């Protein structure tokens, strides 16, 4: 099985996942709504979901965006600013195929059509393994890069590999980012730390009841898979949609 295959959700499956959530009463929210709630300036609906994408592969524009637009669903896409228009070089060491990333025009098009562009660092390094100055370069540098590309200065960040420590979260807050996402599975609640937010990673095989359980229960879904419960607060739903079946 190719290294990245589990992470490549076919467009048909992605559409079914979104439709499933809507059918069961989940409500898709924007980054602005999520941020206001996190900062105590607004209430989210029950079963709120924020859709996020890491890396910004080029088929996000032609495979995922039309599906989102058809349903009026907002999303956030996290770009690796030093690799814009290039490829996922960070995956080559594990034998992954070379995949194209969106170029500047592609990111601008996403933004124009309602997808907020966040930062996924400058180089996709494991941030907690870097020196303090290198962490700043990766975070602050990525914000400057994306702003120089004609995009709004990012206000959200996703840590590459979900890798962070106290130095990284401190640097993220110091850079003015209003929130940051990890890959730790779970739901966001009122007590969640804004620069250590959990998400629910959605994979190719997450369909049907398995998918519902995963989203509804977050980190508890395996232990409690016998019944679906209402999702509380914000579910940070993370997906990679590949433009192939």
Automatic annotation (TrEMBL):
<dbReference type="Pfam" id="PF01522">
    <property type="entry name" value="Polysacc_deac_1"/>
</dbReference>
<keyword id="KW-0732">Signal</keyword>
<dbReference type="InterPro" id="IPR011330">
    <property type="entry name" value="Glyco_hydro/deAcase_b/a-brl"/>
</dbReference>
<feature type="domain" description="NodB homology">
    <location>
        <begin position="47"/>
        <end position="245"/>
    </location>
</feature>
<dbReference type="InterPro" id="IPR051398">
    <property type="entry name" value="Polysacch_Deacetylase"/>
</dbReference>
<protein>
    <submittedName>
        <fullName>Polysaccharide deacetylase family protein</fullName>
    </submittedName>
</protein>
<dbReference type="InterPro" id="IPR002509">
    <property type="entry name" value="NODB_dom"/>
</dbReference>
């Amino acid at each position: 099985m190719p290294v990245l295959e589990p992470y490549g959700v076919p467009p048909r499956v992605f559409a079914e996942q979104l439709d499933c959530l809507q059918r069961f009463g989940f409500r898709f929210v924007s980054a602005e709504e999520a941020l206001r709630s996190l900062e105590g300036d607004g209430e989210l609906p029950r079963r709120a979901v924020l859709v996020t994408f890491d890396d910004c592969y080029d088929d996000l524009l032609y495979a995922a965006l039309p599906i989102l637009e058809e349903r009026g669903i907002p999303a956030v896409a996290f770009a690796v600013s030093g690799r814009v228009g290039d490829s996922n070089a960070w995956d080559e060491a594990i034998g992954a195929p070379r995949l194209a990333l969106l170029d500047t025009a592609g990111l601008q098009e996403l933004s124009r059509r309602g997808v907020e562009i966040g930062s996924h660092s400058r180089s996709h390094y494991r941030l907690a393994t870097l020196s303090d100055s290198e962490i700043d370069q990766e975070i602050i540098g990525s914000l400057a890069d994306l702003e120089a590309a004609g995009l709004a200065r990012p206000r959200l960040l996703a840590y590459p590999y979900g890798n962070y420590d106290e130095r990284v979260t401190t640097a993220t807050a110091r850079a003015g980012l209003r929130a940051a996402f990890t890959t730790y599975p779970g739901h966001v609640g009122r007590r969640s730390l804004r620069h250590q937010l959990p998400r629910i990673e959605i994979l190719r095989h997450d369909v049907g009841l398995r998918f519902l359980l995963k989203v509804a229960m977050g980190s508890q879904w395996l232990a409690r898979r016998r019944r679906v419960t209402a999702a509380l607060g914000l579910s940070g739903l993370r997906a990679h949609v590949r433009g192939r079946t």
